[in-house]
Write a structure and sequence with these properties.
- The protein is an alpha/beta fold and about 270 residues long.
- It has one domain: TIM Barrel.
- The chain has nine helices and eleven strands.
- Strands 3-2-4-5-6-7-8-9-10-1-11 form an eleven-stranded parallel β-sheet.
- α2 links the parallel β4 and β5.
- α1 runs parallel beside α2, α2 packs parallel to α3 and α3 crosses α5.
- It is globular.
């Protein structure tokens, strides 16, 4: 049986926002709320300063993200020099940058970004009404292709709770021959009208991905009200889980599932 990996990044692999709490896109399901939980680093100097502190505390790396502009981009283009210096410190980088052009993707790969956490959406209604984007579904495919062409490692993130958006996204990933995918689930968020999908819906979506040959990672953005999701994932064969509960860890031990704990983002060992 394949060894499981449980991810607990914590202070060893913190999330950093290069826009602080600012977001121009203000998607309906987030409204910038989740940026409040990230460490602000709104300049190259601040990013390097945070990296030095992480290194001093024996950290492993950082997730670089932030709010999007009206074009669906996190403004990381001016930070490639700082990113290169962070990598030279021996820290790993997982980048969530939104849409990327061919030249932007190439520059970031050359700067040393190891993983590109890339949201994937294919339902035009979700893209327009929820994400407030004037870009069509093809923009997500273009970003993935640009990263792949530059030699980067794309880790798609799909979201349960947006109707058939996940299945449409799954079709794109199959066509691109991508097999690693992180599954997130819509969560209740202050200031939004989010309705969490049922636990059964999330499990069903994960099963569809597994049945289609995907290697599924249960990502960190999900409700902790789901009592059986993590264990059901293990039963179905999922071997990568972010921030598992102690109940899940105990169940894995009791059922002789070998596992290791990684203090990194959940896509770093794919």
């Amino acid at each position: 049986m394949e060894r499981a990996i449980f991810y607990n990044p914590g202070r060893k692999f913190p999330a950093v926002s290069v826009t602080g709490t600012k977001c121009e896109q203000m998607c309906e399901h987030c409204k910038g709320h989740h940026l409040k939980n990230m460490i602000p680093a709104v300049s190259s100097e601040k990013l390097i300063e945070k990296a030095v502190r992480i290194k001093e505390e024996n950290g492993n790396g950082m997730l670089i993200s932030g709010g999007c502009d009206v074009n669906g981009k996190v403004p990381v283009g001016e930070l490639t020099g700082a990113i290169r210096k962070v990598r030279e410190m021996g820290l790993q980088i997982n980048l969530h940058a939104g849409f990327l052009s061919e030249s932007e993707a190439d520059a970031l790969v050359k700067a040393g970004v190891e993983k590109f956490s890339t949201d994937v959406h294919r339902d035009p209604r979700i893209i327009r009404d929820v994400l407030h984007s004037e870009q069509g579904p093809e923009a997500y495919e273009e970003t993935i292709r640009n990263i792949m062409k530059a030699g980067g490692s794309v880790i798609p993130h799909v979201t349960s709770g947006f109707g058939n958006d996940l299945e449409l996204s799954m079709d794109l990933l199959k066509a691109l021959n991508i097999r690693d995918v992180v599954v997130l689930a819509l969560v209740r968020t202050p200031g939004t009208d989010n309705v969490e999908p049922s636990e059964e819906t999330v499990i069903s979506d994960i099963r569809k991905l597994l049945d289609s040959g995907f290697n599924v990672v249960l990502g960190c953005m999900r409700s902790r009200n789901y009592k059986n999701l993590e264990i059901e994932c293990l039963k179905m064969g999922v071997r990568h889980i972010a921030n598992p509960s102690q109940r899940t860890v105990k169940w894995a031990k009791d059922n002789n599932i070998e596992f290791e704990i990684s203090e990194k983002c959940c896509c770093m060992l794919l």
